[in-house]
Design goal:
By secondary structure, this protein is an all-alpha fold. The chain folds into 4 domains: 139 residues, no CATH class; 208 residues, Methane Monooxygenase Hydroxylase, Chain G, domain 1 (Up-down Bundle), CATH 1.20.58; 143 residues, no CATH class; 192 residues, Up-down Bundle (Methane Monooxygenase Hydroxylase, Chain G, domain 1). Helices cover 76% and strands 0% of the residues. The chain is built from 27 helices and no strands. The chain is elongated and about 90 Å long. It is found in: Cell membrane.
Length: 711
């Protein structure tokens, strides 16, 4: 805000208002591209924004000479600017800056400055914003990292709490799972952002140790996400054991909830090591469960022993979570960390997803198959319609219609619809509040103060609460006009009408102008998720066979599996927000999403166990089952691609026959007189977990194949 307001204030004070306004606009339009990420990407993003708004302001300077020329410039330029979104999230914000500059060039015509002078000053305003942003970074270099790190810790705590609720929420499980999928998706995105900031941060003597410790914290958080999804057996068997021994339900829930609470406490206290929660409460929870497990192990019954083995495996997962939590606490305290503990930067860079900025990305998107191309064309045509209507019916400020369109219209239906509704409601509420204030107060100084406060709040709320942001934007605009002209009530009236028209055009534009529906793309998301899980399964099997240390390729496969499953959840979420007529195969798609999550959960269970336990040699049977699961996944991919669908029919009898032959842990066949042998218990734990997970994976892959074959 300092970068935006300062040039305007100095310009007004010194009598160079137009120069102040140009610099203010340049800084304001570069603000959207200043999002979380590495310093290098921030600098490039702001520089590109500054160059774009400068060029757009120069082009927009000529829109006032002819309505027809204005219409052509608006259509062509808005289409070209919108296409920039092809290069990812930050590029989409730069594109938004360019559209803002284009639309506001309709509203502001410099009187004293030439067009090229005004454009250069707008670019200079962008450089001024970059300078202020870099200065703030120098003053508070750790601010961004700390904010995202503690937010990630808090989200991990919330996810663990939700996971704990799943233990006994049988009737509400479907709703909880949907919520959990969404949380996992958001958390995976947080991991990506934090990973980029930490790995690409400039390495110097002042920050290398700090960054190294934060990277290690991130590693623990990523592994906590993996462990949170792990189950020793499938949900049905877990439910049965918890129902037979309900006392363990409360014991495990209390343990998980306490770990979740401690994570959220760490997030709340921030950089205050002396306030980090102690281990005592968690130690007492673990002790209580171990005592109960010891009692259960002494019951010489087959069912009790099977339950004991499952609960023991589940407890060991929670112990791994506790180890990671203790590690996070230690790293965030003032302890020294040996340099050899830090992860090599070259290895870390392999975990980054680098954005391709080559021209071929743009060329690839010049097709109706591209969602961004259709969005860009839709944006351009809708803006042109809004411009024609605004001029045809002589609206007081037709550019408000265009501004509403660029603020609301998004590439997907759900967000466009939500923003249309929020923008309309926010504008009406803001208009009502402004009307009351204008009736009660007639003081330009009060208006100026309220306009500034409203504008600051509007910007701060833009990403968090769009409806609230719309309220404050309306208030700030009304108060600014209250200073400039006497008939404020007319301003409020036109503001509401323009917003309603802009919101209506945005919504109708998406429905009728080359719409992009999720059902057209979601098969690709399912395919990517299945492919990633297939690779992860292969890496787990390879590690189980050959043992040794965990290779980087294994961790990369895990990252990819979680990321693609997260992307699938997001795609499905978008699909549920679309009209019912466009939700084709919704129930089957949801089943596939759930099956993919369960498949990844089972892989995570295997992964954690084999990494942290000394396991026996892999048998030929193990290799055969893994091969069969991999084969099923290959058939799933063929079905999704519509390749070989007629050649590879699913033989249900063969599936059932193979599943019945799969080895499983049979507590009835265990000699209960030998169960006091610690080594034997450990072998039984491995036997139950490994074979149960393989049976579950085979069952899940077979169900996926049935579903995809029928779609």
């Amino acid at each position: 805000m300092i970068a935006v307001i300062t040039p305007l204030a100095i310009g007004i004070y010194t009598g160079y208002t137009e120069i102040g306004v140009a610099l203010c606009f340049g800084a304001f339009w570069c603000n959207p591209s200043d999002v979380n990420g590495s310093l290098k990407h921030k600098v490039y993003g702001i520089l590109f924004s500054a160059a774009l708004v400068m060029v757009v302001s120069f082009i927009g300077g000529y829109v006032h000479y002819s309505p027809w020329l204005s219409l052509v410039i608006l259509g062509v330029t808005s289409f070209a600017i919108s296409l920039i979104s092809s290069y990812g999230f930050r590029a989409s914000l730069i594109s938004f800056s360019g559209l803002l500059a284009l639309i506001l060039s309709f509203a502001h015509t410099p009187d004293k400055l030439r067009i090229y002078e005004y454009s250069l000053l707008v670019g200079l305003g962008g450089l001024w914003y970059l300078a202020v942003s870099l200065l703030w970074y120098k003053i508070n270099p750790k601010g961004q990292t700390e904010e995202i790190l503690y937010e990630t810790i808090a989200r991990t705590g919330k996810l663990m709490k939700k996971r704990g609720k799943l233990i006994d929420e049988l009737s509400n499980r479907k709703k909880l799972l949907k919520s959990l999928f969404l949380m996992q998706s958001e958390l995976t995105e947080q991991h990506e952002t934090l990973r980029e900031i930490l790995i690409l941060s400039r390495k110097n003597s002042g920050r290398s140790v700090y960054n190294g410790k934060r990277v290690l914290v991130l590693v623990q958080l990523i592994e906590m996400l993996e462990t949170a999804g792990a189950n020793p057996v499938n949900y049905t068997k877990m439910d049965r054991q918890f129902q037979m021994y309900p006392e363990f339900t409360k014991l495990f829930q209390n343990l998980i909830f306490e770990m979740a609470r401690q994570l959220q406490t760490i997030a709340e206290i921030g950089n205050k090591p002396n306030k980090i929660p102690k281990h005592e409460t968690l130690n007492s929870h673990f002790k209580e469960i171990r005592i109960k497990l010891q009692d259960l192990s002494e019951v010489k019954e087959a069912k009790a022993y099977e339950a004991y083995i499952m609960f023991q495996n589940f407890l060991e997962y929670q112990e791994k979570q506790f180890d990671k939590l203790k590690r996070i606490k230690w790293l965030l305290s003032d302890h020294d960390v040996a340099s050899e503990e830090f992860i090599d930067k070259e290895i870390l860079k392999r975990f980054l997803i680098s954005q391709d900025y080559s021209p071929r990305i743009l060329l690839r998107n010049l097709s109706f198959r591209s969602t961004i191309f259709r969005h860009s064309l839709r944006m351009a045509v809708t803006l042109m319609i809004g411009f024609v209507l605004g001029n045809l019916f002589a609206f007081q400020n037709p550019y408000w219609i265009l501004l509403t369109i660029i603020l609301i219209m998004r590439p997907n239906y759900g967000l466009t619809k939500t923003r249309s509704k929020d923008r309309t409601i926010g504008t009406i509420i803001g208009g009502v509040i402004a009307t009351v204030i204008v009736y009660l107060v007639q003081d330009v100084y009060v208006y100026a103060t309220l306009a500034l406060i409203s504008f600051v709040i509007a910007l701060s709320m833009l990403q968090k609460n769009y409806k609230a942001s719309a309220i404050y934007v309306t208030l700030s605009i009304v108060f600014i006009y209250g200073i400039l002209q006497p008939d404020v009530m007319a301003v409020i009236q036109y503001r509401i009408i323009d917003t309603l028209l802009g919101a209506g055009l945005s919504y109708l534009g998406f429905l009728f102008l080359w719409p992009s529906w999720s059902f057209q793309e979601i098969r690709k998301d399912v395919t990517k998720s299945v492919e990633a899980n297939k690779v992860y399964l292969a890496k787990i099997a390879d590690f189980y066979i050959h043992k040794g240390s965990v290779p980087t390729s294994y961790r990369l496969a895990r990252k990819s599996a979680f990321l693609e499953t997260s992307n699938l959840s997001s795609a499905f979420q978008r699909m549920t927000q679309e009209p019912h007529s466009k939700q084709k195969n919704l129930n089957k798609i949801y089943e596939l999403v759930e099956l993919n999550h369960n498949f990844l959960s089972s892989l995570a269970s295997l992964s954690i166990y084999i990494q942290h336990h000394t396991t026996t040699e892999a048998s030929e049977r193990f290799n055969g089952i893994v091969h069969k699961i991999d084969e099923n996944l290959s058939f799933v991919l063929k079905s999704l691609a519509d390749v070989g669908q007629n050649d590879e029919k699913l033989n249900l009898d063969e599936v059932i026959s193979f599943e019945e032959q799969l080895p499983k842990f049979e507590s009835e066949n265990v000699n209960l007189g030998d169960t006091d042998n610690v080594r034997l218990k450990r072998n039984h734990q491995e036997e139950q977990l490994i074979w149960e997970q393989l049976r579950w994976l085979y069952s899940l892959s077979s169900t996926m194949l049935k579903l995809t074959s029928s779609m």
